Amino acid sequence: MTRRAPFITLEGPEGSGKSTQGRILSARLRAMGRDVLDSAEPGGTPIGMQIRRVLLDAKNNDLCPTAELLLMFAARAQNVDQWILPALAAGRIVISDRFTDSTLVYQGAARGLGADVVYDVDRIACRGLVPDLTLVIDIDTEMGLARAHRRSAQTNDIETRLDQESLAFHRKVRAAYHQLAEDEPRRVRLIDGGRTEQEVAADVWSVVEPVIASLVSDVTR
Ligand code: TMP
Description:
Layout: E1 7-11, H1 18-31, E2 36-40, H2 46-56, H3 65-89, E3 93-97, H4 100-110, H5 115-126, E4 133-138, H6 141-155, H7 167-183, E5 188-192, H8 197-220
Helix pairs in contact: 1-8, 2-3, 3-5, 4-5, 4-7
């Protein structure tokens, strides 16, 4: 059976700790001798990072929802072509901090553009690439936002356009993640991020390990 390497994504509302969990997971896989590519969106490639700046710069208040959606996918298309597909074809595990599910919940649900338009553009940008496993690190909206705002203030971050959105916007994001986990229970797993880093990492590993084992054995079969 020919099958590409596993493609795993981490998702979650602001301040959920998903990036930390992604780093812990990659390190764990590398320690086991697996070849891992870490990616992040919006961004990833050097061109994607330039698009990220336009998307997240707090000064760009005028960016309209459709332009926002298309720029998210522009960065993703570059990432899919330049990094993700070649890595998966070479047998490397790819771990992406956010992917199309983010567009589904932020632009599709919270901005109100709807899921259909997101899936339409996804077909062009990602050409059928869907994660094998998606871990949604869930966090109480107010707690997550407080964490994110604290971190931005400490680092003088200017990429705050989206985390400055209203509490109602971020509540819609969280609810849409819950809905996604309900709609796609095999691929999308909700993990309680309101605990210690180690506790969350243990849960992440208990979900990832069997999936990696089955997909990697398919690749080498
Ligand atoms: P980050 O904080 O995980 O780097 O994500 C940056 C912001 O971009 C975050 O507020 C979520 C948002 N975002 C979208 O709105 N749509 C998307 O498709 C992606 C990838 C991120």
